[in-house]
Structures are given as structure tokens and as C-alpha cells.
Amino acid sequence: MDIVSKEKRSEMMSRIRGKDTVPEKQVRALLHRMGYRFRLYVKNLPGQPDIVLPKYRTVILVHGCFWHRHLGCKYAYQPKSRKEFWQKKFQENIERDKQKEKALQFLGWKVIIIWECELEDPKKIEKKLKRLIK
Predict the structure, then answer these.
(1) Domains: count for the chain
(2) What does DSSP assign to residue 70?
(3) pLDDT tens-digit readout, 2-61
(4) Region for 63 from its dihedrals, namely left if φ exceeds 0, alpha if ψ lies in -120 to 50, beta otherwise
(5) Where residue 40 sits, what CATH number does that domain have?
(6) How is the beta sheet containing 39-40 ordered, strand by strand?
(7) From the centroid of its chain, how far is CA 111?
């Protein structure tokens, strides 16, 4: 049973952004400080990756832990209502993520995934990016 009306829930869900999320902006700011230049949401690549570093033939996907199901993460909790709906939704998201990643790799792109919860430690993310981009 939902605690808000259908109309209110619809309004709330419509405000969930797909692009320019706070975690994406944090990663972009970090990359910029590190001296990297990048493009956003390149349309001719599978899935329009969040961040593209053409010089390094690398894409960065910034995943929200809840929507993309970060295993073992406290933010990837299971909603208590409409369990079948959410299970199907999450499974579709996971499958779509795998397909995008494989398609990008097939085209010769390196794929880096940054999880929303990892942004709690920017120094750790910076080390990860330095190691994986080069």
C-alpha cells in the first residue's frame, strides 16, 4: 500500500532525472579537476554513455545504486510494495546495462562504472579513474 496518492507518486517519479544527475555532475567535476576533457551523452554510441573520453577510448557510466542494483549496497534496497513490478523493472535495467556494456566493448571502448555510493570517497574515485583511464 502506497502512502501517497497515485497523482502525487506520478509527480514524484517524474522528477527523477535520467541525465545531469548529481552523481554525474560530481564525476564530471572530478574529471575536470584531474585535467580530463570529455563529451556527454554521445548519441552514436550504444546507450548514449554518461561521459565519453574519446582520447582514451573510454566511457564512464555513472550508476545509481538503487536503479542499477549495486550488489551488497545499502542503497539497493527492495521496495516493500509491488514486489513483482520492481523485480521485473530491476531485472530489465540489469539486462539493458549488460547489453550496453557489451556493445561498447565490442566497438573497442573501455567501460568504467562508477557507483553512486562510491562518490562518498572522492579520493578513492580519483585513484580508480587514474588507474583505469590510462
Answers:
(1) 1
(2) -
(3) 677 878 767 776 666 667 899 999 999 999 999 999 999 999 999 999 999 999 999 999
(4) beta
(5) 3.40.960.10
(6) 39-40, 51-53, 58-63, 110-115
(7) 12
